[in-house]
């Protein structure tokens, strides 16, 4: 059930908005007055705030997106996460374990010093070793040895083939060799904030804003914006109000409740991109009796999620288009696999499972459970867009299948701890639970590896496999794929692994959310699939 | 007097100790922060490494003694999320919150006392009834809703005030504050009013009740019989006597304004410590939560002390002594 308080609140807000529309003329005058600012400035309202100005302290999107303006990576990814040259101008594969990179010549840091291979080496030393880092960049750097050839050429050697080399090198920014030993505090204060990027660090007020100014001598040409201000406005209605009132020019993460209305507002423009994130259900595949599934009489039963037919029934009973239309208000697309089909390495054969309640009931009966069972489903509250509402909707759909469903949405801080190690003996606690996963590399190898390969600490596989699904064929294909340098071959293997996992219902994908940005109508927006909000994605008409 | 202050300080330390224990273990019950901190695509070994570097892999008792050891050396620990000392994170954002609370308190006093006084002196006047009705609304409307309405009306529809954030900062006798710039005032007005709404209503009710009670006292009748002017009777004799309960309550409420401005700060994106606390709780940033609690307890102890001293100045019958009350 949708909590009625929230609905009432929305309706009230809607009425106020209608009133606002009627007074559009007055409001437009007011906005025109309030937005008197230089045409070269852009103010961006963000839904989250960075935790640090140190590019290597915390591998977290709110940090990375701001750092990307100041510190550039060797490889850049465009709005669709396609590989593009960054600070590295060209590269070639010498042999299976050696890559050679050529750096862009004539690039200068903000402090005027020249950029060269020594800066890359300094980054190599610093990025994986920042003290007290809650999540650093070691995953992308360790195991890659760097060798200087000349001032603008270097080689990277790896123990085995590393086909995702370029994707990894796109994840972290390069610092100046002068600032190799600077602390996180030095970066926060701006003392060490000298990169090669299109914008220079100007001001960081923790919890409030980050101000950047144009780097006139950027190698990619003079950036559009003279001054960029990121204002963190966490509360959704406030962020929308800040855009409407002209406090900011652009906002990220347009709340789904307001998206349709903002799209109709003649003073504003919006743009969306399908994100690289999938929202899905994970299923317990490691306990013979799972704690949150009981018979209807309350007695323990054998874990029904072991049975493929039960898993298929659960997937078929989910009305994905309804979730997309009603809960996500159109701001999503039904999902069939780990990332949207437009990405490399995805299967073109998989389609979102169609809603088929009768078919689902039949499968459940075939599995020997015609009367269903009692189940508690879990999910985080406030981690993903509308997560608790999606969970409620899924609960209702499964109730129609004949299950006794209880729904528990838990604050994220508590949820992820329990979902990872909350069960007896430190295993994942829940039986059937909602999670999200985004593919930062722009292809599915990390998704397949983390979510559906066998949980094995020594190999580092299945690190986020909280259902402990294990299928030797998936393991084999994935391990082979991540050692295959040939793109076409690797992508075919990943697509095959994806198909096997999905046909086996290792996870139940629900939808891919849309990322939506909104701006005043005189701005242009290039939406990005990686959820990054970059000043360079916006322009002026 | 000195004995009194020392006794209070001792009690304060005990409260701090109790709170630290409760909060430290309480946060631990919520979950293991490592799962909120790490990037989801990290491998098991990398996650274990983070856990080790933050000391989260050790038993909770050991973590607690380590933490207490740090406190004794004046170190409240570093934020898991920001990597900087927790106490500095909070102190950096404290001026913004104190500023907001002071303006809210100021609004409560300059709006609440005159209105309450008026309502007490002329209880049957239609305006008084209006004031009392509005004060009920002030009590009962949820802060976040009023905040959004303020933004909708004054920022979106009328465009008079900015919707979010803190304005330009200026310097005043070495104190950096937004209260010395026009831009600063335009930013603080709405959040301060939102935060003050409940307090304004409270002061109106206290002032009204006090006025009605005091007006019937013999000394007021005597003053009137003596032929004192009406303005002197109200301005001095009534006002001074109704101030005693108001000062007590406002003193305590100031503490709560500073400590619990979480909702207002989040709605108005005000970069104060309330917003920091909310995020620290969402991310299980234990050092920040614990440091916040310590600061708030100290704040309350100090405010209580000041209230007691002010009280004795306003009412000569009250004497401070070292003996338990």
Low-confidence stretches of chain A: 1-13, 19-36
Percent range for β-strand residues of chain A: 15-25%
List the helices and strands of chain B in order.
Answer: HHHHHHHEEHHHHHH
Uncertain residue segments of chain B? none
The proportion of strand residues of chain B reads under 5%
Q: What composes the largest sheet of chain B?
A: 2 strands, antiparallel
Mean pLDDT of chain B: 86
The computed structural class of chain B is mainly alpha
Question: Overall pLDDT of chain A, averaged?
Answer: 89
Question: How many distinct beta strands of chain A?
Answer: 21
Shape of chain A: globular
Can you walk me through this structure?
The complex is a heterodimer of chains A (541) and B (325). Chain A has helices spanning 4-22, 24-34, 61-70, 117-126, 138-141, 165-169, 184-189, 236-245, 256-264, 308-316, 320-327, 357-366, 387-400, 412-421, 445-452, 472-481, 487-503, and strands at residues 41-46, 75-77, 83-85, 88-95, 98-103, 144-150, 153-158, 199-205, 209-214, 227-232, 250-251, 268-274, 277-283, 293-294, 332-334, 374-381, 404-411, 432-438, 507-520, 523-525, 538-540. With 541 residues, chain A is of the alpha+beta class. In chain A, strands 1, 8, 9, 10, 11, 12, 13, 14, 15, 16, 17, 18 and 19 form a 13-stranded mixed beta sheet that branches. Chain B has 325 residues and is mainly α. Chain B has 13 helices and 2 strands. In chain B, strands 1-2 form a two-stranded antiparallel ribbon. In chain B, a hairpin with a 2-residue loop joins strand 1 (170-172) and strand 2 (175-177). In chain B, helix 6 crosses helix 8 (182-215) and helix 7 (143-157) packs across helix 8 (182-215). Chain B is globular.
State the gist of this model.
The complex is a heterodimer of chains A (541) and B (325). With 541 residues, chain A is α+β, with helices and mostly antiparallel strands.
């Amino acid at each position: 059930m949708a909590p009625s308080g929230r609905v009432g609140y929305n309706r009230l807000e809607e009425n106020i908005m209608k009133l606002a529309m009627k007074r559009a003329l007055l409001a437009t005058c007011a906005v025109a007055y309030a937005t008197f600012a230089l045409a070269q400035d852009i103010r961006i309202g963000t839904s989250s705030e960075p935790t640090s100005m140190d590019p290597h302290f915390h591998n977290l999107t709110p940090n990375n997106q701001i750092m990307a303006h100041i510190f550039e990576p060797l490889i850049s990814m465009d709005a669709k996460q396609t590989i593009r040259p960054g600070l590295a101008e060209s590269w070639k594969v010498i042999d299976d374990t050696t890559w050679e990179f050529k750096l862009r010549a004539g690039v200068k840091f903000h402090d005027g010093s020249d950029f060269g291979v020594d800066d890359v080496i300094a980054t190599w030393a610093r990025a994986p070793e920042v003290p007290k880092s809650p999540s650093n960049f070691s995953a992308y750097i360790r195991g890659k040895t760097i060798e200087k050839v000349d001032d603008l050429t270097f080689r990277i050697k790896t123990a085995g083939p590393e086909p995702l080399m370029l994707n990894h090198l796109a994840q972290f920014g390069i610092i100046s060799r002068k600032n190799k030993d600077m602390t996180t505090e030095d970066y926060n204060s701006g003392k060490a904030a000298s990169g090669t990027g299109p914008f220079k660090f100007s001001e960081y007020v923790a919890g409030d804003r980050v101000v950047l100014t144009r780097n006139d001598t950027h190698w990619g040409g003079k950036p559009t914006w003279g001054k960029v201000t990121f204002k963190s406005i966490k509360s959704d209605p406030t962020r929308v109000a800040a855009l409407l009132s002209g406090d900011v020019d652009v906002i990220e993460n347009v709340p789904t409740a307001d998206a349709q209305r903002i799209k109709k507002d003649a003073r504003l423009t919006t743009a969306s991109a399908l994100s690289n994130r999938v929202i899905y259900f994970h299923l317990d595949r490691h306990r013979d009796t799972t704690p949150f599934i009981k018979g209807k009489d309350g007695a323990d039963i054998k874990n029904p999620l072991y049975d493929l037919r039960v898993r298929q029934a659960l997937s078929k009973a989910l009305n994905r288009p309804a979730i997309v239309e009603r809960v996500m208000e159109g701001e999503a697309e039904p999902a069939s696999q780990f990332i949207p089909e437009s990405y490399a390495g995805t299967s073109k054969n998989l389609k979102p499972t169609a809603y088929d309640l009768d078919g689902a009931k039949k499968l459940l009966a075939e599995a020997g459970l015609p009367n269903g069972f009692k189940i508690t489903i879990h999910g985080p509250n406030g981690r993903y867009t509308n997560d608790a509402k999606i969970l409620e909707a899924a609960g209702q759909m499964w109730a129609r299948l004949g299950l006794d469903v209880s729904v528990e949405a838990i604050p994220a801080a508590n949820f992820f701890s329990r979902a990872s190690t909350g069960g007896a003996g430190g295993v994942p606690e829940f039986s059937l639970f909602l999670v999200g996963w985004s593919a930062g590399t722009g292809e599915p190898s990390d998704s397949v590896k983390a979510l559906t390969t066998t949980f094995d600490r020594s190999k580092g596989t299945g690190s986020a496999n909280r259902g402990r699904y294990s299928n030797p064929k998936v393991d084999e294909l994935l391990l082979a794929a991540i050692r295959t340098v040939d793109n076409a071959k690797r992508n075919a293997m990943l697509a095959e692994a994806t198909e096997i996992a999905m046909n086996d219902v290792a996870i139940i994908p629900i939808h891919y959310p849309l990322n939506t940005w909104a701006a005043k109508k005189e701005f242009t927006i290039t939406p990005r699939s990686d959820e990054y909000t970059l000043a360079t994605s916006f322009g002026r008409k | 007097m000195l004995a009194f202050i020392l006794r209070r300080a001792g009690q304060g330390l005990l409260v701090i100790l109790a709170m630290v224990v409760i909060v430290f273990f309480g946060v631990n019950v919520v979950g293991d922060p490592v799962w909120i901190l790490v990037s989801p695509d990290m491998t098991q070994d990398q996650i274990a490494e983070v856990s080790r570097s933050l000391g989260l892999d050790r038993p909770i008792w050991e973590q607690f003694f380590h933490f207490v050891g740090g406190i004794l050396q004046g170190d409240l620990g570093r934020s898991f999320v920001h990597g900087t000392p927790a106490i500095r994170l909070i102190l950096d954002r404290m001026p913004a919150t104190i500023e907001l609370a002071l303006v809210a308190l100021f609004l409560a006093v300059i709006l609440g006392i005159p209105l309450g006084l008026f309502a007490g002196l002329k209880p049957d006047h239609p305006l008084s009834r209006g004031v009392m009705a509005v004060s009920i609304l002030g009590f009962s409307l949820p802060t976040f809703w009023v905040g959004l309405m303020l933004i909708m009306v004054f920022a979106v529809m009328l465009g008079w005030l900015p919707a979010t954030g803190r304005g330009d900062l200026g310097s005043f006798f070495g104190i950096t504050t937004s209260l010395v710039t026009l831009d600063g005032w335009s930013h603080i007005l709405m959040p301060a009013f939102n935060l003050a709404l409940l307090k304004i209503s409270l002061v109106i009710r206290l002032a009204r009740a006090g006025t009605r009670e005091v007006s019937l006292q013999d000394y007021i009748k005597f003053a009137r019989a003596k032929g004192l002017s009406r303005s002197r009777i109200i301005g001095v004799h009534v006002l001074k006597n109704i101030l005693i309960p108001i000062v007590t309550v406002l003193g305590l409420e100031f503490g709560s304004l500073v400590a619990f401005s979480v909702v207002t700060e989040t709605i108005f994106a005000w970069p104060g410590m309330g917003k920091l606390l909310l995020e620290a709780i969402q991310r299980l940033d234990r050092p920040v939560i614990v440091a916040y609690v310590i600061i708030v307890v100290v704040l309350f102890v100090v405010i209580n002390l000041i209230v007691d001293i002010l009280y004795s100045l306003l009412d000569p019958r009250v004497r401070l002594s070292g003996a338990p009350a």
